[in-house]
Amino acid sequence: MSDELARDTGYRELLGRIGEAYAAGQARAVRAVNVHLTETYWEIGRHIVEFEQEGQVRAIYGKALLDRLSRDLTLRHGKGFSRSNVIRMRQFYLAFPKGATPSHELSWSHIVELLKIDDDLERDFYLQQTRRENWSVRELQRQIRSSLFLRLAAGKDKEAILALSREGQALEQPADILRDPYVFEFLKVPEPHDLSETELETRLCDQLQPFLLELGKGFTFVGRQYRITVNNTHYRVDLVFYHRILRCFVLIDLKLEDVRHHDIGQMNLYLGYFAAEENVEGDNPPIGILLSRHKDELLVEYATYGMNSQLFVQKYQLYLPDREELRRELEATLRLAEGERAHD
Question: Which of 2, 144, 154, 298 is 20 to 30 A from 37 (CA-CA)?
């Protein structure tokens, strides 16, 4: 009986190993197909552009050329050559004329979303960030819709903006995890809204996956209303996370209106407690973020004078930001930098 049981256990292990090998093989096959597909689409785009560039007569075909190609390629090869797809193939080559560089890591659906972005800096950022964080197509769509690049670029100088576009968001110091503002449109709170801080916290925890996506890479959820005790007095931190990359706790308190000076003092107390009582060997000092609807810059400056440099006050909003306003701020920063360089 025991031998038979051992054989059954061995068989189940065998079955599991075969299943894992099959799933891994399928994933490799899908990646291989994706690489060949996107490289093929890039080649098709190259052929179209080179055909258009051969002379004036062919160049005037314009829209009619793409319509005719879509029709004839569909007749010859079946699905995959809709007019919109043929247009994207042409765009793909024009956006990456030196080669189909994203093809080894991103699906054609990812590339289509990237090609919808006209600005080269913005497109390059989302390309790098999708690679860094392994975003699904749906996650990429959400980050584009919430203007992540423009929010991260806000307040940076030209060199920092260019680095953000080339490399994505590097996480090397506490300030790198911040966003201005945080956007919680996924909560779908109707306007006008009348939420309490507890209701907002509950909604964020109920929507933990999109909340973690908005916070960014590296966050793991530890708990809500995390109780700490100092001299027999109990306090509760609204939300506690641990950041795997920065190797530190991240404490978040939610405020519906302006942050007041005693809110900052209380967060500083939380940071001191976690540094002394919760950190273990290898942990870095904790980070504190007060999230509020509004931010009084002068009050924050005075209230944090000489205080922990890892305590931040950031704004959040429940609706998508004004994309054009953010873009105007970015363009103004770049124009100012160009003007200063020309003056020098």
Answer: 144
Same domain, 189 and 316: yes
Which tens digit of pLDDT belongs to each residue from 281-339?
999 999 999 999 989 999 999 999 988 789 999 999 999 989 999 999 898 888 887 77
257 domain residue, yes or no: yes
Query: Nearest 5 degrees, angle CA 177-CA 178-CA 180?
Result: 150
Question: pTM of whole model > 0.85?
Answer: no
Instruction: Identify the domain containing residue 290 by its residue range.
Output: 182-320
Residue 79 CA to residue 108 CA, distance in Å, equals: 15
Give me 72's structure tokens: 């004839």
Number of domains in the chain: 3
